[in-house]
Amino acid sequence: MHVGPPSSGSLEPRAAKAIAVVLLSDCVIDTVRQLVDGTWTLRSSLPLALCNFALLVAAVACWWRARQLVELTYFWPWPERYRAGHA
Question: 10 Å Cβ neighbour count for 54?
């Protein structure tokens, strides 16, 4: 286990940024798909659902490797999970 800042040749920062790009690409592709299909509406698409917002926060957390945002995206879904009965 490595403690401290990653070395300059480490794969971790590049992998984290690659994950961020994949997450943001998913968001963009889904929005474009809705626009092309004609299913994107101001009423249903603009108020970001918690999942959509969490996806954006997760991408930012990966890109900048912000520990607080990583923790937020980890703990955020727990209340909904218990409410849905998937404990």
Answer: 16
CA-CA distance, 44 to 36, in Å (whole number)? Answer: 16
Tens-digit pLDDT profile for residues 53-72: 888 899 999 999 888 998 88
Give, in degrees to the nearest 5, the angle at Cα 23 between 42 and 48: 25
Number of neighbouring beta carbons within 10 Å of residue 58? 20
Helices and strands (H and E) in the chain: how many: 5, 0
Is pTM beyond 0.85 here? no
Separation of first and last alpha carbons in the chain: 31
Express each pLDDT in 5-28 by its tens digit.
Answer: 555 567 788 999 999 999 999 988
